[in-house]
Amino acid sequence: MTRLARTRQSRRLSPENSCEHQQFAPARGAGATEVIAPNFKMRLSGVTSTIIQLVPLMRKMGLAIEALGPGLPEAIPRLKFWQYPRLLFRPTGGMYRVWHARRNTEMVGGLILRHIFRSPVKLLFTSASQRRHKWFTKWLIRRMDAVVATSRKTAAYLEVPNTVIMHGIDTDRFCPVADLAAAKRALGLDPTKKIAGCIGRIRRQKGTDLFVDTMIRLLPNHPDWMGIIAGRTTPEHTEFENDLRKRIDAAGLTDRIRFVGEHTSIERWYQILSLLIAPQRWEGFGLTPLEAMACGVPVVATDVGAFSELIVEGKTGTVIAPDSLEAMVAGAAPYLADEAMREASGRAALEHVHANFPLRREAESLIGVYRELLGKAA
Domain containing 75: what range? Predict the structure, then answer.
C-alpha cells in the first residue's frame, strides 16, 4: 500500500476526521435561527460554493444557520419565502441574529433589514477582494458590526478592524482516487496519459489563454501528457474560446488539449490530474489550488489571490509571476519532466491541506466570530 493510500485509508477510518460522528441535531425553523447566510446570485460562483459547503457542516456542528436566496441546491438548509417575515422578530432564546454577507448586495440587504424593517440583526461581511474598494463598498463595510478577510492580502485593503479566516476545503469530497486509470476511463480519457489541467471559467481574466499557449509549447516534447480545460464559457466569452480552439487546431493538438465543459462533480476532474495550472490574471481568493492539493495534485499558480498563501513554494507547487507565458512555461516544465519530483510534491500537497486547510477549521473560526457578535449583543 502506498503512502498516499495509507493516508486516505487512515482518514476514512478515523472518526475525528469526519463530520458524520457528530450527534448535533440541526436547528429547525426560522424562529430558532441564529445565523443567516444570504446568497443573492443565481449563477454558481466561489461565494455560492462556500455557502454550499459551510452551511450543512455548521448545522452538523450545532449552529442554527440557514441560507437565504436563489441559486442554491435544494438540499441546502434555507429559509422558505413564507418564513422571511420571522426575521423581523427576535430569535427564540436570543436577542439578535447574525446576517453574514459576502457581497455588496447582501450588505445592502442586511442594512435594509436592520434600518428600515428594524430587524434585530448583527451584520458581518466577509471580504475576498484584493483591490482598493470603491467609495460605496467602503461606506457599506464601515456599517458592518464585524469584518472577516479571507487572506492577509485581502486584509491589507481593508480600512476597518478585521479577522483573517482563510477558506478551507472539504477533504472528504476532494481526495485522491484509488484507481487512477479507472477514473480516467470513466471520464473518457486515455488512462495512459498524464494530465495537466486548468479548472475555472473560460475567459481572459482566468488566464485560460496562458494555459493553452503553455500546453502548445510543452506538449510536443512530452508525448505522454495531455491538457484539459474544465469550466463554463458564458456567451460574452464565446469568441475568446473559439480563438483558443483555433490556436490548438493550428498547433495540431486538438486531441491532446480538450475542453471538457462545466461539471457539478468537479472533484472527479481534479482526481485525474497529475498537475494543476492556475493561470489567473486576477483572483479574489481562489479555491482551485486547495481543491487540487486535497486530491494529491501539485500546483503551478500565478501570484494572485491567496495563491501564495496556499502553496508552499518548492514543496507543494510553484508560484509564478502573473500574466507571463514564459514564467508559466518555465514553472510547469519541471513537473512534466520529473515524475519523482511531481509525486513528492503531490504527497506534500495532500498533507499540507489536511494539516492547514480542513473545512472544519474555517467553520469553527467563523462560529467563533458569530458567538462573539451574539455574545456582545446579549
Answer: 14-168+358-377
Per-position DSSP letters for 65-132, written without gaps between them: EEEESSS--TTS-B--GGGGGGGGSPPTT-S-EEEEE-SHHHHHHHHHHHHTS---EEEEEEE---SP
231 with 258: CB under 8 angstroms?
A: no
Question: 201 and 323 share a domain?
Answer: yes
Both 184 and 101 in one domain: the answer is no
Same domain, 143 and 239: no
In this model, does residue 15 exceed pLDDT 60? no
What is the per-residue pLDDT across 211-260, written as a single tens digit (0 to 9) for each? 999 999 999 999 999 999 999 999 999 999 999 999 999 999 999 999 99
pTM (predicted TM-score): 0.82
Pair 205, 243 in one domain: yes
Contact 285, 46 (CB under 8 A): yes
In a domain, 296, yes or no: yes
Are 19 and 27 in contact by the 8 Å Cβ rule? The answer is no
What's the pLDDT at 91? Answer: 87
Cα 180 to Cα 346: distance, rounded to the nearest angstrom: 14
Q: Both 125 and 61 in a single domain?
A: yes
The number of beta carbons lying within 10 Å of the beta carbon of residue 62 is 14
CA dihedral of residues 112, 116, 119, 124 (deg, nearest 10): 30
Beta bridge mates, 139: none
Q: Which three cell numbers stand for residue 342?
A: 511531481
Q: Which residues contact 237 (CB under 8 A, 6 or more apart)?
A: 201, 202, 203, 204
Beta pairing, strands 257-261 & 225-230? parallel
